[in-house]
Design brief:
Length: 165
């Protein structure tokens, strides 16, 4: 018997934990369900385990919603939740309209060495020229640790350019 975790991603983001037995199929138990606050927020567009952000010994999780807040601006947001209680630990929002903050989320491990897992939130249209940014946040206080902007020169090459032109 193997333990598997699965994620249902729609406008509602739900986390399941189940036991899989090939003889009887898969039985899943709903652990937490998080609903978007309005249509179009795209809650669950990105999801990831965040490591132990709050230091309670349990794994936490992060959910991206690049369509919120407010609805229609696509500034984006990401939410970090406790794996033990399902309670909200941190809510982070994008800096500008249309940046799609929360389009990607991930655990960063313990970047700053404080014993807490840190987390990364991407916005695929943020930064200069809308090339995107990756933002690393502290698990201890939610503060921004690092921001990496996509390098502009990376995006100017075209497939038909030849060396020496």
């Amino acid at each position: 018997m193997r333990i598997r975790a699965g994620v249902l991603v729609t406008f509602v983001c739900a986390f399941f934990l189940g036991f899989q037995n090939p003889a009887v199929g898969q039985l899943l138990n709903l652990l937490y369900q998080k609903d978007g606050d309005s249509s179009g927020v795209q809650l669950g567009i990105s999801v990831a385990g965040a490591g132990d952000v709050d230091g309670d010994g349990k794994g936490d999780f992060i959910i991206g919603a690049w369509g919120s807040p407010p609805p229609g601006t696509r500034g984006g947001a990401a939410y970090v939740y406790s794996g033990a209680t399902g309670g909200l630990l941190y809510q982070k929002g994008g800096d500008g309209s249309g940046y799609q903050f929360g389009s990607s989320v991930a655990s960063a491990g313990d970047v700053n060495g404080d014993g807490r897992s840190d987390f990364i939130i991407g916005d695929n249209l943020g930064g200069f020229g809308n090339f995107g940014t990756a933002n690393v946040y502290s698990g201890a206080d939610g503060g921004l640790l690092y921001q990496k902007l996509a390098q502009m020169e990376t995006f100017w090459a075209t497939p038909w350019e030849e060396p020496g032109m």
